[in-house]
Known about the structure:
Layout: E1 4-7, H1 14-25, E2 28-31, H2 32-42, H3 45-56, H4 62-74, E3 82-85, H5 91-103, E4 110-115, H6 118-132, H7 140-154, H8 156-162, E5 167-171, H9 176-188
Parallel strand pairs: 1-3, 1-4, 2-3, 4-5
Helix pairs in contact: 1-9, 2-3, 4-5, 6-7
The site of adenosine-5'-diphosphate has 18 residues, from helix 2 and helix 3.
Amino acid sequence: MQNIVLFGPPGAGKGTQSEYIIEKYGLLHLSTGDLLRAEIKEGTALGLQAKQNIDKGELVPDAVVIGMIENKVKSNPDAKGFIFDGFPRTVAQAEALDKLLVANNTAISGMVALEVEDEELVKRLLNRGKTSGRADDQDEATIQNRISVYNKETKPVADYYNAQGKFKSINGIGSIEEIFGRIVEAIASF
Ligand code: ADP
């Protein structure tokens, strides 16, 4: 199985690149952000709770997102592999994911990190907010909070995979095709 983690700050382009990766490698896309927004749309108890965190630019509790990922991995035993997008976002999530994959006789192949500087992220997210309808993309203070949560809680996840020799960082600035080319190269090196 080929299991890839696509990593990077909010607005780095993970969602866009995931679509290209799915098409080329036939992997199943697991985006915790998408899964959470689906719960919100359906008005589930989990969604209502998560919305409170998301709208403030905070993380949703680890147990919630780990549970969602566990369900998806277990209910897709025939998948060729997974592309994890927006997960793991904390070291505790990364540890839980490793355990889950071991239990399914597989492992993370590697993590590809998209590097984009903060100023560009804020610009991209505010721009996306004009059409996404996402409250968390429309307010600059919320965006800044997401970036600072990323720096504090999520960045250490890169060190976690680096320590396992499974980390590649690439430049996330350029055309979609250019960036995808860099991702393909990184995946080939795993
Ligand atoms: P972006 O990467 O642009 O911030 P996402 O769709 O990945 O967008 O995430 C949106 C929000 O959903 C996050 O700001 C956070 O509140 C919540 N979220 C998504 N994934 C996770 C996760 N793995 N752990 C905790 N919270 C998450």
